[in-house]
Specification:
Number of strands: 41
Largest sheet: 22 strands, antiparallel, barrel
Shape: globular
Oligomer: single chain
Strand content: 35-45%
Length: 847
């Protein structure tokens, strides 16, 4: 048995004919049309060692590495979105931890409904829980694929089917498998630089890949990438900021920045290795390390009217009405006995700070017994928030095969992700003049350990049986922040908010490590009943701490009428267990709602206050998935069409926010210090069911013309989600609309790649459908985006490329309420980059 058998080359049109999302050819060399039905062996959705994509009962996309390199960005999530229409990810400019690890949706479902594999092995999830995700992603804790250097990838497989019976929890929307390069020689060095047409957002990337022999029949393949990304600004100056300027306060322009965050020291490494030990036994493994620092902005705090900090109102920086002649302030009495007799109003005339008003404010600031936060931030303040993220993993395995058809594979895996948060240019208002202006709010960490034993036996050329077991431990850890980040200061009883404003630190009581174990047993079989009919079935039993057992199954078939036409279908059940983080996490975030900044807290669903609003023990989500597809050729045109229907019961999500009475706040304050500063609370629920239906269409062909070959590829996805049942006490009408309309129902890519000797020309037209933004309360219209790239090979081993994402500088629909609202010129949930044209140059040297 050869240890690392090289797969036969595959033309682009062949891959497209059997799977969604495959586009341009991976090299300048072209295959002939007669070779288009030579198909690459897939590694997901099947445990048979020789199954091709068109043989599979479920649709599998195979995306070549060149699809990721032929773009301007360095974040793999953006690169993936541009070539897989059913994959949605947006910028998340002001979204707490979601700015650091952005949530992504496959086929309109939650980010943690997609299972991510690396070389066929389960990856750990990220430590970030998405508190702000436009409803559809709220409360999710999905994986982070941005930690992979794109230069390390051999290809990516996307299984568009429910696969919990095969791979376990989370595989409801599908499975994404990243295959790492396994070359034992050669390599490449790549440098890329670009910036937006507005002159900001510069990005630079330096990456390298190296293949080395490991013994006589092994390999060690190493990849590394270093990149950075400067921030962008696409803001509209807010009306309340202009009003503050009119009152004479030194407010920045813009007071609040909407754009891409700053990413510093983005380091990604990935190593893949394998060696033959003899006796048909192989030692293999992979490891990765990634780290970065991400810094973004928060919402603007007006110098006079930020509730709980410097004012009793939050009315866009003006008096309650044009006839008002004073503005109420929140002024702290610093005396021990409350004898400061501090003034709390300043005169204004026609909404402007006149001489009398300025004098009154100066008197307050000069009084040693009184304190107003304009003494610390005269022009108000806009907190900056971010985190230092670290991700690492290590997998080691041993596998073998006997001449009698028996195969075995045992492996162990450790994965870890953590984010150490920071926030600055903010205050803990309850500490008054003694507050720091920068804080360490604490840290989230996620650690997973897996042990797997997988076995297979080939009874004959037509019957294959696999079985195995898994033990997995998942731990979520909260590290408390510095005391000032959650302290209840001496001014708290005067109405000043507690905790670091914008993102309160994790208090001591919430800190700790929360773990859960589960074991699983599975069986999987594939039987070729005839030369044209393949059937498959799988069953999986799992036992979770705290939830008991669940059993899921999957059946499927693939029937080929002839070499050009075939049909396929599957039916499966699935599940997704709530994570320890979703069960135990506590968080307080500041959100912009109905023109106001409000502090929203998230508490465990079994907290005493949550129980008053319908909270209860969380349960696993359960799903049923049905797919049916056809693949056929019309002359030289390859076409696939697949339908899917996914029903999910007891969906996990955050409840709607609810207000607390004074008595409830006092009760909660005994268990959550500072709860009196929180406007609303929410918790995780299992309170709604959904049905997601859609189609994936792929059309591909090649044309010999203009002295070369052009590959044409159309990839289309239409996905619709309907909430079929929900609890009106915890799920609002807005949340229903967020889930049903928060991501585009329609996405399409049309790609043409023309190769002419040493030249390659690529054009990609993408269509994004409309989406609903709950913050702006607007259904935005869709747009067309056009990308282009030209590359030339020099001296046989150097490629020079010039390209542009969004060639025609297409902007999203403008937010008409930007100035009156949060200052976001465009929707923050725009499914494509809202920053305009991005121009880049790339140099690649291969050896």
């Amino acid at each position: 048995m050869q240890l690392f058998e090289k797969k036969k080359g595959l033309s682009l049109s062949t891959l497209i004919s059997c799977a969604l999302g495959v586009a341009a050819n991976t090299s300048f060399a072209q295959e002939t049309q007669t070779e288009r039905f030579d198909e690459e062996v897939i590694s997901i959705g099947t445990r048979s060692s020789a199954r091709s994509a068109t043989d599979s009962p479920a649709a599998v996309d195979v995306i070549g590495a060149a699809e990721f390199s032929s773009q301007g960005g360095s974040d793999l999530q953006d690169l993936f979105r541009n070539v897989v229409p059913s994959y949605n990810v947006n910028q998340q400019p002001i979204s707490d931890g979601a700015t650091i690890v952005r949530p992504a949706n496959l086929r309109g479902l939650s980010p943690d409904h997609t299972l991510v594999l690396l070389n066929g092995k389960r990856r750990h999830r990220a430590s970030i829980i998405t508190w702000l995700g436009n409803g559809i992603s709220n409360g999710s804790q999905g994986p982070d694929i941005s930690v992979f250097p794109s230069i390390a990838l051999k290809n990516v497989e996307v299984l568009r089917d429910g696969a919990a019976a095969q791979y376990g929890s989370d595989a409801i929307a599908g499975v994404i498998n990243f295959n790492i390069k396994d070359d034992a020689e050669g390599g490449a060095i790549e440098a890329k630089f670009g910036e937006y047409s507005e002159g900001d957002g510069q990005r630079g990337t330096l990456a390298a890949n190296l293949g080395l022999p490991l013994g006589a029949n092994g390999f060690l393949n190493l990849s590394a990438e270093y990149s950075y990304a400067d921030p962008t600004n696409r803001s509209t100056q807010r009306d309340d900021a202009n009003a503050a300027l009119a009152l004479g306060f030194p407010v920045r322009d813009p007071a609040q920045v909407w754009g891409l965050p700053e990413i510093e020291d983005d380091i990604k490494t990935l190593a893949n290795f394998g060696i033959e030990l003899g006796g048909d036994t192989q030692l293999y493994g992979h490891t990765n390390y990634a780290s970065k620092t991400v810094t973004g902005g928060f919402f603007f705090r007006h110098p006079l009217t930020r509730g709980g900090v410097n004012g009793f109102t939050n009315d866009n920086g003006t008096p309650d009405n044009p006839d008002d002649d004073f503005l109420a302030l929140l002024v702290g009495d610093l005396t021990s006995d409350g004898s400061g007799n501090c003034r709390n109003d300043i005169p204004v005339t026609n909404n402007s700070l006149d001489a009398a008003g300025l004098a009154a404010l100066q008197d307050i600031q000069a009084d040693p017994n009184c304190f107003h936060f304009s003494e610390v931030f005269p022009g108000g303040f806009t907190p900056f928030f971010g985190g230092d993220a670290v991700d690492y993993s290590f997998l080691l395995g041993l596998k073998g095969e006997t001449s009698g058809g028996f195969s075995w594979d045992v492996s162990s895996y450790l994965g870890h992700h953590e984010v150490d948060f920071f926030i600055f240019d903010t205050v803990n208002a309850s500490l008054g003049p003694n507050t720091p202006t920068s804080f360490d709010p604490g840290k989230y960490a996620q650690t997973e350990i897996n042990f797997n034993a997988d076995f297979g036996y080939e009874f004959s050329d037509t019957v294959f049986f696999a079985w195995g077991a898994e033990w997995r431990e998942e731990e979520f850890e909260i590290t408390a922040g510095q005391p000032e980040s959650f302290a209840i200061g001496p001014l708290a009883d005067q109405g000043f908010s507690t905790g670091s404003n914008g993102f309160a630190g994790f208090p001591d009581f919430s800190a700790g490590a929360f773990s859960r174990e589960n074991i699983a047993l599975y069986a999987d079989t594939e039987v070729e009943l005839t030369d044209r009919l393949l059937t498959t079935a799988a069953v999986r039993w799992e036992d979770f701490d705290g939830f008991g057992t669940t059993t899921n199954y999957k059946v499927g078939a693939n029937f080929q009428f002839n070499d050009d036409v075939g049909i396929r279908s599957t039916f499966s059940t699935g599940f997704k267990a709530p994570t320890p983080g979703q069960i135990n996490a506590f968080n307080v975030s500041t959100e912009f709602q109905n023109g106001q900044l409000v502090n929203n807290g998230t508490i465990p669903s079994t907290n005493a206050i949550a129980l008053l609003r319908g909270g209860r023990e969380l349960e696993p989500e359960e799903s049923q998935s049905f797919t049916a597809g056809i693949f056929f050729a019309v002359g030289q045109i390859d076409i696939t069409l697949d339908y899917f229907n996914i029903k999910v019961e007891d969906r996990l999500n955050l409840s709607s926010e609810f207000e607390l009475t004074a008595a409830e706040q006092a009760s909660l304050d005994s268990s959550i210090p500072g709860a009196g500063s929180v406007n609303n609370f929410r918790f995780f629920t299992n309170d709604f069911d959904t049905k997601t239906t859609g189609v994936d269409l792929v059309v591909s062909t090649s044309t010999d013309w203009l002295g070369g070959v052009t590959d044409w590829n159309l990839v289309l996805n239409n996905t619709e989600t309907e909430i079929t049942d929900f609890n009106t006490a915890t799920v609002s009408a807005t949340r229903v609309r967020e889930v049903e309309e928060g991501v585009p129902t329609f996405r399409a890519n049309f790609t043409a790649t023309h190769t002419l000797e040493n030249w390659r020309f690529l054009g990609r037209l993408s269509r994004y459908g409309g989406w609903f933004d709950s913050q702006d309360n607007i259904k935005y219209s869709g747009e067309f985006i056009f990308d282009a790239e030209v590359s030339v090979t020099v001296a046989g081993n150097s490629d020079i490329s010039l390209g542009v994402n969004n060639l025609f500088d297409q902007e999203p629909q403008v937010n008409p309420g930007a100035a009156a609202g949060a200052g976001n010129t465009f929707s923050q949930y725009t499914p494509f980059d809202f920053n305009g044209s991005f121009w880049y140059a790339r140099y690649r040297y291969s050896f």
